[in-house]
Q: What sequence folds into this?
């Protein structure tokens, strides 16, 4: 799916949301390496990001050409701030009504309301694609994100204890959340 450029104003700053372009593949790889090092709330450690430019271009292309997936980039006053996406839970017709969500921002853009704007647009597009359920996972101690998701109507539907083991030996749970659309 393609999201044509949409503009918003947030705290006197211009926010632009749009689909990714192939020439932004390296920017997205560099972003992943940075944001995974800024917080413990994302999928892995920075040194685990080993995507090639070609692989990232294929990821962008697959989302742009899909009827049941979307990747949205966010820019604040022209500076890349982060992205969000959804993909169909594939496998069978029985799960085809479910959309899985992901979102990450550079830390300097968290807590400003940008994630709310992004998720509202993403949820609008999920509904337009006729999904009836949106799902996400949030790390237990990511209180701000959890509050945002709950304010949008997501509810906890499960928990995976010690789902994340960090290099320092600490653990954290994953909380599974769902929103009926």
A:
């Amino acid at each position: 799916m393609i999201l044509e450029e949409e503009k918003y104003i947030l705290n006197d700053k211009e926010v632009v949301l749009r689909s990714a372009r192939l020439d932004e593949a390296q920017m997205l790889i560099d972003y992943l390496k940075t944001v995974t090092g800024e917080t413990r709330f994302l999928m892995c450690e920075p040194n685990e990001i080993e995507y090639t430019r070609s692989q990232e271009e294929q990821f962008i292309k697959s989302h742009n050409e899909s009827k049941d997936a979307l990747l949205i980039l966010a820019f604040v006053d022209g500076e890349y701030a982060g992205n969000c996406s959804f993909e169909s839970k594939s496998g069978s017709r029985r799960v085809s009504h479910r959309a899985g969500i992901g979102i990450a921002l550079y830390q300097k853009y968290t807590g400003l309301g940008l994630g709310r704007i992004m998720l509202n647009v993403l949820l609008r597009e999920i509904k337009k694609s006729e999904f009836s359920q949106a799902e996400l996972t949030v790390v237990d101690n990511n209180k701000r994100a959890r509050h945002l998701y709950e304010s949008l109507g997501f509810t906890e539907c499960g928990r995976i204890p010690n789902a994340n083991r960090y290099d320092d030996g600490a653990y954290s749970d994953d909380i599974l959340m769902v929103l009926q659309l």
